[in-house]
Amino acid sequence: MEPVNFTQISKFILLGFSEKPELQPLIFGVFLSMYLITVFGNLLIILAVSSDSHLHTPMYFFLSNLSLLDIWFTSTIIPKMLVNIQTQNKVITYAGCITQMYFFILFAGLDVFLLTVMAYDRFVAICHPLHYTVIMNPRLCGLLVLICWILSVLHSFLHSLMALRLSFCMDVEIPHFFCELNQFIKLACSDTFLNNTVLYFTAVLLVGGPFAGILYSYSKIVSCIHGMSSAQGKYKAFSTCASHLSIVSLFYGTILGVYLSSAATHSSHSGAIASVMYTVVTPMLNPFIYSLRNKDIKQALKTFFVKETTNWSVVRRLQMCPCLQSQTV
Fold first, then answer.
1. What is a single molecular function from GO for this protein (predicted)?
2. Is-contact 49 216, C-beta < 8 A?
């Protein structure tokens, strides 16, 4: 079949997980629940950090950025999927597909870079505790986040521009629940060598590089903890980075699992199911990992809700006061 110019392709079809009508309400309910839990849980983390002055530290600054990022990350793909299920329409426009792809790559890259910055923060906190506040000053923290944004924007912009050069045949079915770059490239009828080269090169550079940085930071952390004489000091040092280590393991572990399962089965459908782990499940679990293992977060949330409950009670009493006075008279 002769390829047609991409300007003639106005839409794609997202096949999703299943075409069986009886499964659609179940899929809709499961993903809506996970999305609401993700948004609500990460908003609680942001609320706890912003409301408690004791949590205005570099570690919690990066954590609140990660929580906000997870909300944006899932919001890039889940709402569109829920709308498609509800309306029984799997179509996404060409512009919508490119836009979704751009923001997905942007927020995924930010996730990778931010986890690397958080590993460096834990390295400084454990290995250089006396100089921690001097090294991790507000200016450096802001600069690190800005660098993460710049690199992610450039990375996403590059892939989006490369995607725009592709031309397609009439087969516009994407065997996924969102516009995933690799599946998008596979649909193209034009030469995709340059796209695949850029895809694999940037994956090694911008995913493997940060992962190597995380491994290096934790190798130094393990070395510092091993050199501590006090067992209590070792436990305290390890507990400060246990939550971050859990999230890193979950994030990279699920990504590795997705691509290994896809390579083993050669099935795009199984890859779509496996990708739910890092696109939906990981952002949903992050707030639980940090809140369940972190006394400061739990205390901040408890204080916030007690304060809000007290304020609400005071307002209610003031509203009831005129009525009570008229009854007394």
1. G protein-coupled receptor activity
2. no
Which residues neighbour 149 within 8 Å (Cβ) at sequence distance 6 or greater?
110
pTM score, whole prediction: 0.88
173 strand-pairing partners = 13
- Beta-carbon-side half-sphere exposure of residue 273 (alpha carbons within 13 Å): 9
In this prediction, residue 256 has a pLDDT band, given cuts at 50, 70 and 90, of confident
Interatomic CA distance for residues 175 and 61, integer angstroms: 38
Where residue 211 falls (left for φ over 0; alpha for ψ -120 to 50; beta otherwise) is: alpha
Domains along the sequence of the chain with CATH: 11-293 (1.20.1070.10)
- 35 Cβ neighbours under 8 A, 6+ residues apart: 74, 75, 78, 79, 82, 280
**Alpha-carbon distances of 43 from 39, 57, 115, rounded to whole Å:** 6, 18, 19
